[in-house]
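Encode chain A's predicted structure.
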Amino acid sequence: MNVTLKSEVLTVSLNPERGNVITELILGGVNHIYLDQENLKSGQRPRCGCPVLFPYVGMPENGELVIHDKRYPAGIHGVVHSLPWQVRAQDEKTAVFECSDTPETKQTFPFSFRLQSRLSVDAGSLVYHTQITNQSKEVMPCDLGFHPFFRISDLRALTFEVDGETCSFTEEQFQRITGSGALLRNCSVFCWQDEQFSYRLENLIGFRNLFLWSGKPDTFLVVEPWTGEQNAINRNIQMLNLPSGESVETEWKITVTQKL
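Encoded structure for chain A:
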């Protein structure tokens, strides 16, 4: 069953049983989140909505994590994107969700953890706050990311603003975004707009990078907040190294505005 939050102008829905993906981000009568209903109904990794990426983003080198000189088989985008989440609290504008490790996640990531996310809406904004807790007895290396698919009609027709500077993509950058993707390091704010709506994604707490990708440039643009980079655990450059029993807070925000 979906959980729905509402402000005066914004409706946000999530599916806790399906990786807690966002299924609706509705403003001005338009759902700004791209959905693939066939994928949602399958048991496959979510490829729409807004999957959660933990404890790493992207695909580790050689499809494995190397932790304390031991190798673990690893797929793309971590181990929680398909886990069921529990609803811990909810009112009209805010909901709290939680998930934790399972025997299956430990086959890839041999740590005990808890993720607790608090989502809240206000006017045209959604704030997504996540607390990561290390429930293991040793330091836990990790990163966190999100993979929101935003609906578009033409990637080339969009205008962009990166950290306050308006720009347009070169043909080379367009090819990167529609290919393997483009990493924006140390990027705190990314904005884009079409003829009807403007969008503003902000890295508020803990996130330092954004990753842009579009597998269908006439359908969606993915703008991903990341705490670190791809293959970070294997390269020992992960941003988060949590001691046993400790937690870290992260937060990002998306604002949608309808043009007059």
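The chain has three helices and 23 strands.
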